[in-house]
């Protein structure tokens, strides 16, 4: 079986060593660099499944690295987990808008971070296994599950991988109220107390991209969210 690869782009040596030791112990092939230029080169050469990306780096910051990754036809499918001391909501939103799949704030639990890496890789494996030719349509909305593509009024909408997974989860559970905990487990692949903001931030961004159909996702106060195209 092929060994999954993880690239760590981090300039703090202590954190480099912590991640290298624990990721290798978990069975991953790990590449480590302290700068974005080498990180982009290694990503091109090795095509890792996941990149753990610090934001505050010398010469080229993590946001620019993420922007370059997601604008590359070859590299855009690599999953990016931002690992940073910058924990304000605006920082998370910018990261998600650039295509980051997850966001972890320092100081972090190494156990939790390993779980997130495992979950994000497993999520991709499950998606490949579940791929079908099913196409869902409602009025001007169209979702192709095989291609994982979304169209609005005939135009392809650029959703991040996480937004696509979130929309797919809603479509497959139309009319049901989905709790934040369930969405975390099914979309992100983990459950951790205190990360409901991750769900809320993504849903706000998804509603914006849905445009005139934004109210198709209802907030059930105190319970979660419901996708109801018939309302």
Shape descriptor reads: globular
Largest sheet: spatial strand order? 2-1-3-4-5
Query: Oligomeric form of this entry?
Result: single chain
- Could you name the CATH class of the largest domain? Alpha Beta
CATH H-tier superfamily of the largest domain: Response regulator
The percent range for helix content is 40-55%
Domains (count): 2
Number of separate helices: 8
| CATH fold label of the largest domain | Rossmann fold
Structural class: alpha/beta
> Approximately how much beta-strand content do the residues carry?
15-25%
Q: What is the rounded distance between the termini?
A: 47 Å
Characterize the main sheet.
5 strands, parallel
Describe the structure.
The protein has 231 residues and is α/β, with parallel strands linked by helices. The chain folds into two domains: 5-127, Rossmann fold (3-Layer(aba) Sandwich), CATH 3.40.50; 131-227, Winged helix-like DNA-binding domain superfamily/Winged helix DNA-binding domain (Arc Repressor Mutant, subunit A), CATH 1.10.10. 42% of the residues lie in helices and 21% in strands. It has eight helices and twelve strands. It has helices spanning 13-25, 36-46, 62-70, 89-97, 110-130, 161-171, 180-188, 196-210, and strands at residues 5-9, 29-33, 50-53, 79-84, 102-105, 135-138, 141-144, 149-152, 155-156, 177-178, 217-220, 224-227. The strands form three sheets. Strands 2-1-3-4-5 form a five-stranded parallel β-sheet, sandwiched between helices. The chain has a four-stranded antiparallel β-sheet with strand order 6-7-8-9, covered by helices on one side. Strands 10-12-11 form a three-stranded antiparallel β-sheet. The radius of gyration is 18 Å and the shape is globular. The chain starts with a strand and ends with a strand. The model has no long low-confidence stretch (mean pLDDT 89).
